[in-house]
């Protein structure tokens, strides 16, 4: 009887240890996800005197890693997800105006069609896509052409931030030696 109890305890312990090994966590992603807010730090330091967020962008941040980005990794003239992995998502907490068109509060995807001298920035209704592979132009809310600005120092990881000019929030996208700005009018 003692041997049977010992066998039962040993088997139970073996199954318990094996059950703990079932979960396999993924390694750290090569393009980590980040969030950018307008106004900057609106959520990090939320106080009654700090404005609530107006825009939130969730995106994955690929790195240059010595590659030629625009025109090679990101093809000119093709729809790009503005990041890596899933498409970039943008949330407007209130109605805004982009390219003269009113965009209602809500969640959208952010795409771009990069060219050497200009980009077409696209706000699209479709969410939860992997990259731009299933992009559907019929679901575009607005398209705006913006000029490319070259910078002297390489921006290693894709970065999105905001600058302010009066009631305009400029969504700034920077990667490699390129930046673009999308003006968003906030009322």
Q: What radius of gyration results from the CA coordinates?
A: 23 Å
User: Largest sheet, if any?
Assistant: 6 strands, antiparallel
What structural category arises from helix and sheet content?
mainly beta
The total count of strands amounts to 10
Mean pLDDT, nearest integer? 88
The N- to C-terminal Cα distance equals 80 Å
Individual helix count? 1
Into how many domains do the coordinates divide? Answer: 1
Strand proportion, as a percent range, falls in 35-45%
Question: Could you explain how this protein is built, in words?
Answer:
This is DUF2911 domain-containing protein. It holds the Pfam family DUF2911. Residues 1-19 form the signal peptide. Keywords: Signal. It comes from Flavobacterium nitrogenifigens. It is a single chain. The model has no long low-confidence stretch (mean pLDDT 88). Helices cover 10% and strands 44% of the residues. The chain has one domain (33-186). The chain has one helix and ten strands; from the N terminus they run αββββββββββ. The strands form two sheets. A six-stranded antiparallel β-sheet has the order 1-2-3-6-7-8, with no helix packed on it. A four-stranded antiparallel β-sheet has the order 5-4-10-9, with no helix packed on it. The protein is globular. It has 187 residues and is mainly beta.
């Amino acid at each position: 009887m003692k041997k049977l109890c010992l066998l039962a305890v040993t088997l139970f312990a073996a199954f318990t240890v094996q059950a703990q090994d079932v979960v396999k966590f993924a390694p750290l992603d090569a393009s980590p996800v980040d969030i950018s807010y307008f106004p900057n730090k609106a959520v990090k330091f939320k106080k009654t005197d700090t404005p609530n967020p107006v825009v939130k962008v969730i995106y994955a941040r690929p790195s240059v890693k010595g590659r030629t980005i625009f025109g090679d990794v990101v093809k000119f003239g093709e729809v790009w997800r503005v990041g890596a992995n899933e498409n970039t998502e943008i949330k407007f907490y209130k109605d805004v105006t982009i390219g003269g068109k009113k965009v209602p509060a809500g969640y959208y995807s952010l795409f771009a069609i990069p060219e050497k001298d200009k980009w077409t920035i696209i706000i699209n209704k479709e969410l939860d896509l992997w990259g731009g592979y299933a992009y559907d132009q019929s679901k575009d809310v607005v398209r705006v052409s913006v000029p490319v600005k070259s910078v002297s120092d390489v921006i290693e990881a894709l970065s999105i931030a905001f600058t302010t000019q009066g009631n305009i929030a400029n969504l700034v996208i920077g990667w490699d030696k390129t930046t673009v700005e999308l003006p968003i009018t906030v009322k």
